[in-house]
Amino acid sequence: MSDPIYLDHNASTPIDADVLETVIRVSRDSYANPSSIEHSQGSAAARVVETARAQIAAHVHCKETELVFTAGSTEANNLAILGAFPGLKATGREHLITSKIEHPSVLACFDHLEAQGARVTRLGVDERGQISLDELAEVLTDETGLVSIMAANNETGVLQPILKAAQLAEVAGALFHTDFSQASALVSLDLQNSSIHMASFSGHKAYGPKGVGALYRSIRRPRVNLTPVMCGGGQEKGLRAGTLNTPGIAGLGHAFELIAKNIDHDRERIGVLRDQLERGLKEHLQLQINGNAQARLPNTMSITIDGVVPQALMQKLRHELCFSASSACATEHVETSHVLLAMYGDTQRARNAFRLGLGRQTNPQDVLRVVDFFNRAVSELLLLRTR
To answer: Is there a catalytic annotation at residue 329?
Structure first.
């Protein structure tokens, strides 16, 4: 029996084979602590870390000194949001803005700060899954300290207008943070020529290793001052305590270097396959595409099929396909997505939504097989309903 076709790249991408070789090589050869620069092997490990920092900085167009390595984008989001708040509070900017469809690690940070006395505005989205720039402009005040809006939603793939939102925030004197994790492998980013002040990245959403990520924070005007959220030995210029994960960081750097080389090709090839899959499913099934069909990641489809419960569909196809009915980051139990609830309310469309996420390894034969699998499974499920 062949392995199931993997269509859950939004939850996690497979590590690139060349990146894996880098992780293995560095694990074997650069085992010294990169903070132990007083001896040759520690210095060699430190050079590995700085090479990775340069690789990432070159791709996202920022200074190497503006990148802080973390254990993933959840930690990066925490450092950005919780770390910025003490300085903002000291200047009287305790009003914070985010959206209702953010990743749970962002939403939890704002919930925590609200419990500490911050005033939080959570922007809604329309049925296309996008925030309103007009609404953002209306709620910005001279007391707003931080705006955090994700680049691409992990459940619908819908892209947010982060460059324009960042400009609005900057004009109002507020910092702008974006969780760029889901967009990293398929959307180009030029931080140097944007109003984005902080951005979070994750290895396992970008064909790199799990357990490693990075936070960009501007050291230009305005300089972003952060308070560490972890106590320890003062690594990463005192912003992120803990021994650096040298192999993971090397893998992250290599993954971003490969993205820089392949992003145009990946975007076009995967987008063609996604569109073929969408057309194939629409030929035989009554389905709705959730979110903006144009402004979305080229690998992502959020779908609701009339009369079909996604959990039953996943169970029927468990040997053929891997896909998700909700965010893997939200809960161990399948619940109605907070993203789809924000878009459509407590409706069948929201409750029965599921996600297909294609990736580099997806091929045209996979698309044909997926269409056949869905046609068969949906027909069987609908037949059971009529009995």
So the answer is: yes
